[in-house]
Amino acid sequence: MEITCRKCSTRLLVTNTATPIIKCTTCGYPNPVIAGGTPSGTAQATPVVAPASSSPTATVPPRTPAAIPSAPRPVPPPRTAPPPAAAAPEMGWLVVHDENAPPQTHPLRIGRQIVGRKSVSRPCDIMIETDDPYMGRNHCIVEVKPSRSGGYDFFLSDVTMTSGTPEQMSTNGTFVNAYPTALRPKDMVYLNDGDTIQMGKTKVVIKTLITATNGQDASRIVQETDYSPTVIIK
């Protein structure tokens, strides 16, 4: 048999109904025991509710949705260097044909080209490899111009302008076809295919599209000819 404490509502188990009074084990209140039911004025027995724990309740952090991976960024194609500008077409060639210089062929293009001995400190447009001390590092000028007939004209000069006054560019002179007199500052000579130019003691032959199709062809034609006479430099 169970009864409810009138004071604190604690449920009390009665094992002996002959006992008229049972003391509450919680508050000590004396409760009368009535056999066969619950005494009037007493509350119905209610389940005992355990007191809440004094320890703080652990807080569970809210679950966050997993990060959605972003789409990979497109990789830009690698940058490529722009193609080099195409060189101007070759209108002719200077072929070194001398007893004391290695064979070599240099292209001629439209415009003015300064010709001389190869040099790092004073480079020029066409640098000839030679040990000739009489050839200047900037010795003479070969100019290619379109002609009225649709072809090209080739001109040779040995001039430089100093304070507006024409002066000879080379120190030891420039000669054409073994002619003993060197070009003067005001001279401009028209060159024909096969003419020989002597700079210092070194001789080169001019070849054009009239008789050659490329530099290799021009070199072969010149190398098969005899050396031109050399003008003695005094």
TrEMBL record:
Superkingdom: Bacteria
InterPro entries: FHA_dom, SMAD_FHA_dom_sf
Bias (Low complexity) ranges: 45-70
Domain (FHA) ranges: 108-181
Biased composition (Pro residues): 71-86
Residue ranges, annotated region (Disordered): 45-86
Protein name: FHA domain-containing protein
Native organism: Salmonirosea aquatica
